[in-house]
Amino acid sequence: xxxxxxxRLVLLLAGSLFVPSAIGAEPLExxxxxxxxxxxxxxxxxxxxxxxxxxxxxxxxxxxxGTSRHPLSSDAFSHFSTNITFAEEETFKLGxxxxxxxxxxxxxxxxxxxxxxxxxxxxxxxxxxxxxGRGHPPEGGADATSMFLRLARPARTxxxxxxxxxxxxxxxxxxVYGSQFQDMAVPGLASEGEMTIRYEEVAVTLxxxxxxxxxRPSYGVSNLGYGPIGEDTTLSPRIANPMIGMGLLQAIAESxxxxxxxxxxxxxDGISGRAARxxxxxxxxxxxxxxxxxxxxxxxxxxxxxxxxxxIGISSPDAPRHFGDCTDAQSACLAMxxxxxxxxxxxxxxxxxxxxxxxxxxxxxxxxxxxxxxxxVLAGKAAFYRAGCISCHTPKYVTSRRADNKAHAxxxxxxxxxxxxxxxxxxxxxxxxxxxxxxxEWRTPPLWGIGLTDRVNGHTFFLHDGRARNLVEAILxxxxxxxxxxxxxxxxxxxxxxxxxxxxxxx
Length: 507
Known about the structure:
Blueprint: H1 2-17, H2 36-46, H3 86-100, E1 119-120, H4 125-128, E2 147-152, H5 158-165, E3 180-181, E4 184-185, E5 194-205, E6 211-222, E7 234-239, H6 246-250, H7 254-258, E8 277-279, E9 286-288, H8 300-312, H9 331-334, H10 353-362, H11 375-386, E10 397-398, E11 412-413, E12 421-423, E13 441-443, H12 453-457, H13 471-476, H14 483-490, H15 494-505
Antiparallel strand pairs: 1-4, 2-3, 2-7, 5-6, 8-9, 10-11, 12-13
């Protein structure tokens, strides 16, 4: 009897929730890089489809002309964009070598490789972004190399609140442990401690009466090496993001992103995406934030410099912190030698190191779609659109003609993101402000490549902290502005829900 009632409830609620959404495109914002003729063409091409009977033109090539068509393997995220020049292939390969480079502590006989830490989370970029893919929580006793805790406390004075408003700082670090909890240290120095995770299983009943168990995490720190952590310090777990398509995301016209923002929810659809601001590391100029879980960096270069300094403890021209995230309270850390070699430059990773790693990061190709004409995938795409998921996961863009690299310019791409900040509800809240992002807001992550996570990284852990063990769990954790889409998914019948997952796995 319960099953019959549950089935009737599905049909009843599905009639009100699972209906085609208003998915016509808004008029294209003026783009100075386009002629009026091109602007009309771009508006037409990027308008969300209403025909799910067949794939859209060029949908297979989700990374534009640079899409990788290599046979699928664990290296699917590690190929260069196919439309870069032959000379640029050499630059890419040099950047790849530096991305994989293992840094060592100072002093060392390998003088171009020392400067690690002194406190750090990884010895190489590749250690977090394994195979250029997604990080994971430390499951089954595995190490936490590709996951760490961001630390921050709230503003305490009016002057500090003003500094946050002006984006002079993105937040305030813990007085002792800094802005990132680092569980590794060079020889002779104590690490900051260990991250602890406890999970509580929470049962969720779907509309077809099947039950899914979600795991609610709680985070802490133990074996602290430098005394107590601040009582008002928040712990925000982060896993490493995939690296593919970053140059293309950087090339999306700013006006196309801003056109999607609706901070006051003027249209009343319950979606109030906000554009994040970020200060350029070199110029200090305020720009549109695009990268990081909270869109705290404006460019791939800024994201790379931050990772060098915070994750590995390596200084660069854009973040010249030779002691990484060491604080004034960690005198032993500040007393350690650094890896600056005067003959090479005044930082541990002087130019062209940052230039090469940035180029590599900008030109990792997006793999081609799979099964775009499969009936289940097409039905799943229709379900994804009609549930309202594209309100945040914008399917496609045509990049700016003025992109810094010709390979990224005027490309039709399918990242499924609006790059805006959204309130994702209390369930996913970390309570930590980062720049313009509140403790409940996260940047919409791109979805391209998500279906290859298991093949590349050997796991299916999703969301910012890897709490979701599969795509179904990831969707069911959505709340806040995504609550209606989440509920529509939960109320789908079994086959429709499976089709939607098949669509995601094809990306």
